[in-house]
Amino acid sequence: MKININYLYLPLIIVLLVIAAPSKAQTNDEQMAMEYFQNHDYDKAVILFEKVYNKNPQQGVYNNYLFCLMEQRDFNNAEKLIKKEIKRNPDYPSYIVDLGYLYKQQNMQDKATQQYDKAVKSLPQNQAIIGITANTFIQKHEIDYALQTYVAGKKLMKGVYAFHFELAEVYSAKQEFQKMLDEYFDAIAENDAYKVNVQSMMQNKIANDEKGDKKDMVRTSLLRRIQKDPEKYVFTEVLVWFFIQQKDFDGALTQAKALDKRFNEEGARIIQIGDLSASNLDFDVAIKAYQYVIQKGPNSNQYVLARVNLLNTLSKKITSNDNYSSKDLGDLEKDYFIALNELGRNASTAPLIKGLAHFEAFYLNKTDSAQSLLEDVIKMQGLSPIFIGECKLELGDILLFKGDIWESTLLYSQVDLDFKHNPLGQEAKFKNAKWYYYKGEFQYSQSMLDILKAATSDLISNDAMNLSLLISDNIGEDSVFDALSLYSQADLLLYQNREEESLVMMDTLLARFPSHSIVPYAYYQKSKIMKRKGKTMEAIALYQNILDKYADGIMADDALFDMADLYENKLKDTTKAMELYQKLMVKYPASVYTTEARKRYRTLRGDVLN
After folding, report:
1. What is the pLDDT of residue 56?
2. Rounded to whole angstroms, how far apart are CA atoms 321 and 87?
3. What number of other Cβ atoms are within 10 A of residue 298's Cβ?
4. In the chain, is it the N or the C terminus that has fewer CB atoms within a 10 Å radius of its CB?
5. Reported confidence tier of residue 7, pLDDT bands at 50, 70, 90
């Protein structure tokens, strides 16, 4: 038998249509009311909101209706509306807050205070309603009453919920930073799981603390908590985090050692701090961290990693300035081979071999040995594809250094293809772009650099923009590349440590093109060579030349910062260094060096930095 589906459901459809009709009309009224409301046409909006409210007194409609009445200063009807809601919702003190606010708008301060006090006293033992009431006070800019609400709510909840985060935000609004911290740390004391949330919130609160007062309070408060309850190790963890945020890696290491001993971590946390210190060029702290782990002995799980990282960090420290001697280099090379003889040549020590290869090629000029080391590593089993890609890039750099330029670009291209959507691939593409720049194929190089300007790595993106700017600023409208070609050749010679040849090329450029836009770049490159040779005053003279003749040019802030660095660290002239750092901050506020210049200036002035 065939059933008529439409006939079967007809009674239900009729019922739904009857129910939906007024609802639809109400929705239309509310939509029209909202249009008037958004256009600030409150006299029309209030009529429609009243109509909608009388049919369905929802919270949102009530809020908008009350707002319209207040805007029209129709205080009588506003009071009636609020009292109606108070009667309908006796357990919600937020409506009493509305009444108090209404009285305050009429300059009835005593009546307003009476209602506000009544709202706080009327709070039920309900976390949600306490929160709604406090938020209502906050919306009315009654921060002190919001504070009273949370304090009273904490007592009412009797340990079930303490409103730590809510109180912290109120104290923050009141500029009572210490009390805000107390609430955050009380939350952590209550539940370790709040640690990450607290760290994130504190980071935002101290982000613009130029004077460092708030950071002082954070550090002091955490130290007090640790002294008061040394078994509550979460505060030590937060202090480690805090020190790392402030780049106080020595402080972080001290606290991390306590955690390492307490939890028998075998140095895992210490290695992390060492790596962070090294990446931030704080080599001394990194070395202390790795040595601490090494002292645990060869049976420690982190021993090999600590040995590897220690030697690579020592290499960076020695070569990071121009003060090293041939003995320093020879001793370090011996240490590398001692470690390899002890630990063997395998996947675990591959980073050590990679570091040795870099050191041998660029500082001992043993390029053939370095090439052989890397080729052996690339053939090793058990290494990650990323690490092998890094080794290929290092090998490409060494080949470019020794003059095998065609072999170097093959390796760069290979890594670019293998890691197209990875920062490593972007680094390879940048190295290839620079290879074309060295070859004098500037337009092709720039086309690659334009792609890299949007690289996910800030370092690659900035490097790409800087090289692209160098090319675009110096090609010239007639597309004659003679000056830029001389410069790029001199740049390659400098990369290959052929300093005297690079100087000759730079001098040729300056003699042939004394008015070319690339001249300040040439002076800056010459200053780098003078620094390498330890000729500090000659380097300073070149920097001063840039500042005198090209103060508005792109190299001026570089020259000023490097000159200040020489006065600070080579000549030990604190007064002159401070003068130059201050000049950089004032004259070049948008420079990438400004933040570091400010930090160094404050350090030299004797400020206590956190």
Report:
1. 85
2. 78
3. 10
4. N
5. very low
Output the DSSP codes for 113-140.
Answer: HHHHHHHHHT--S-HHHHHHHHHHHHHT
Spatial distance between the Cα atoms of 161 and 150, rounded to a whole number of angstroms: 10
How far is it, in rounded angstroms, from Cα 427 to Cα 390? Answer: 10
Find out whether 514 and 504 touch, Cβ atoms under 8 Å. Answer: no
Residue 396, CA distances (Å) to 390, 400, 406, 435 in order: 10, 6, 9, 10
- Give the SS3 label for residue 571: coil
Q: What are the tokens at 152? A: 């009273």
Within 10 angstroms of residue 486's Cβ, the number of other Cβ atoms is: 21
Average pLDDT of the chain, as a whole number: 90
Owner of token pair 């090998």? 395
pLDDT digits (tens, 9 = 90+) for 515-557: 999 999 999 999 999 998 889 999 999 999 999 999 999 899 9
Contact 484, 443 (CB under 8 A): no
Residues 93 and 122 sit within 8 Å (Cβ to Cβ): yes
Can you tell me the distance from the alpha carbon of 400 to that of 438, in angstroms, rounded to the nearest whole number?
Answer: 10
Distance (Å, rounded) from C-alpha 132 to C-alpha 149?
Answer: 10
Task: Give 427-453 pLDDT, tens digit per residue.
Answer: 999 999 999 999 999 999 999 998 888
Distances (CA, A) of 440 to 274, 427, 517: 41, 20, 17
Of residues 462 and 558, the one with the higher pLDDT is 558
User: Residues 150, 135: contact at Cβ < 8 Å?
Assistant: no
3-state class (DSSP) for residue 300:
coil
Whose tokens are 């330029």? That residue is 405
Alpha carbon dihedral 594, 597, 599, 600, in 10-degree steps, equals 180
Tokens standing for 514? Answer: 């004394």
Nearest to 363 by CA among 392, 404, 415, 327: 327
CA 170 → CA 137, 198, 245, distances in Å? 11, 15, 25
What residues have CB less than 8 Å from 541, skipping those under 6 apart? Answer: none
**Quick check: 32 pLDDT over 60?**
yes
How far is the C-alpha of 396 from the C-alpha of 413, rounded, in Å? Answer: 10
**Residue 316 near residue 278, CB atoms below 8 Å:** yes
pTM: 0.78
Residue 419 CA to its chain's centroid (Å): 25
Q: How many residues does the chain have?
A: 610
User: Rounded to whole angstroms, how far apart are CA atoms 67 and 105?
Assistant: 12
How far apart are the C-alpha atoms of 455 and 435, rounded to whole Å?
18
CA 358 distance to own-chain centroid: 29
**What span, in angstroms and rounded, lies between the C-alpha atoms of 281 and 310?**
13
* Backbone φ and ψ of 5, nearest 5°: -65, -45
111 burial (CB, 10 Å; 0-12 / 13-18 / 19+) is middle
Q: Among candidates 390, 384, 395, 388, which has minimal Cα distance to 423?
A: 390
